[in-house]
Amino acid sequence: MKPVNYISTRSRQEPITASQAILKGISADGGLYVPDHIPVLDRSLAELSRMTYQETAYEVMKLFFGDFTADELKDCIAKAYDGKFDRPDIAPLKKAENAYYLELFHGATSAFKDMALSILPHLLVLSAQKNHIKDEIVILTATSGDTGKAALAGFAGTAGTRIIVFYPKNGVSPIQEKQMLTQKGANTYVVGIHGNFDDAQTGVKQIFGDKELSAYMESKGFRFSSANSINIGRLIPQVVYYVYAYGRLLAEGAIAENDKINVAVPTGNFGNILAAFYARQMGLPIDRLICASNENKVLYDFFATGSYDRKREFILTSSPSMDILISSNLERLIYYISGSDPEQNQSFMRELSQDGVYNINDSMRNGLKDFYGNYATEAETAATIKKVYEAAGYVIDTHTAVAACVYEKYVAATGDRKPTVIASTASPFKFGRSVLGAIEPSGSSLEDFALIDRLAWLSQAQVPGAIAALKTAPLLHKKECEVHEMKKAVTDFLGI
């Protein structure tokens, strides 16, 4: 099988290896790294259905990370998917009503970001060794809530790395914020910016693109990399759980081999559903990719019209990890449906940066035919949480509820009732006030941890240890800054 190398979405540079792409995070031209081809699964679906999560991870990742040996990759996987997860099956499937919820929140921070950020530090450190890098690696990340804590937890104490996380000061849930601000580790740094997630993400991209700063950093023994889903080392591990979910359905007799399924994903930065798209391209029998947005419905409008327009009001919702108007990973899909044309893609991204909008042509829109986009209002999100709880006794978080609501809209519009996997991206306890308020409105006035206890009683579920521990954890990070001060915050932390 031809080995997979990585190319930029914005220029025709020479391909680089997986370890080089993981190490760089983002291309020097501002583009994202994509595989030069999508490999095809080389194990049958029946074989995959008999595998553990760790074994499935190896079968997927070996196809994308060709310059890692089998032993190296298996070692990274074993270190990542271990006792940090509170379930030995890592990502269980739960049937509730007429869908299968893929629970991606059993890791250290109770969110789906753990699925990839548990392995990225191991891949990154090994990539540095493979490429004879002696500099200290500085992980620079913007977060809308969950990536930040998962990245901090993954990299805390990792030799040869430091991690700096920027988050919107008033744009994450109280639990998400406290998870970040209580993070231990001398190599960790958390900064609340006075702006929204798009401001944080744009600021981080500008720092990455500052060649003068990069040269200065290297002269001081540092180099940047990323833990956002723009890093291919974070995106590819997300492909694994869709393959694993199909295997679970097959093993449980819910489907027959080669039966098609649908996948519904709550979508903000587009990485999670892009991973499902990659799984489909690898040969996994996924029919429709159901892209669910909240009231920041820039992706819904894009799928409906072919126009990506970020010029709109930014709305703070109860599903803050999806409060995004610039979906970075969409660039990878745009590159793919443009016929892998970096010049066309570069033009679109320039228009988005300068004018706030770009429009794809009819041929490219045809490349989106496997996607279905819709959105859920705040009222619909709350109503879906209540409906699923009352019908099945199952409690879902706000982001998962957005996907469940959009899935219902899809069924109503199409009549398609294929078995459907809904990506359940966070523990309901991370968004307890919104979740409890939907189920039992009087409970939403309780103090943070009292309402978590009430939610545990209602759901008959144990509060995740990482969230329970927040009750007494001291605040260790108090830095705030304006958007234009982000670069200074980086150099101050590094002492350069």
The radius of gyration is 21 Å
**Principal-axes shape call:** globular
Low-pLDDT segments, ≥5 res? none
Largest sheet: 6 strands, mixed
Number of helices: 22
Category by helix and strand content: alpha/beta
Task: Tell me the span between the first and last alpha carbons.
Answer: 46 Å
Residues in helices, as a percent range: 40-55%
**Got a strand count?**
15
- Round the mean pLDDT to the nearest integer and report it: 95
- Describe the strand arrangement of the main beta sheet, using strand numbers: 3-4-14-9-10-13
Strand content: 5-15%
How would you describe what is shown here?
The protein is an alpha/beta fold. It contains 22 helices and 15 strands. It has helices spanning 18-24, 45-48, 53-64, 70-80, 113-117, 120-130, 146-155, 174-181, 197-208, 211-219, 232-251, 271-281, 298-305, 330-337, 342-355, 362-366, 378-392, 398-414, 432-439, 448-459, 465-468, 486-494; strands at 6-8, 33-35, 93-96, 99-103, 136-142, 161-168, 188-193, 222-225, 261-266, 286-293, 307-309, 357-359, 371-375, 420-424, 479-481. Strands 3-4-14-9-10-13 form a six-stranded mixed beta sheet, sandwiched between helices. Helix 3 packs across helix 4 (70-80), helix 3 packs across helix 11 and helix 17 crosses helix 18 (398-414). The longest helix has 20 residues, at 232-251.
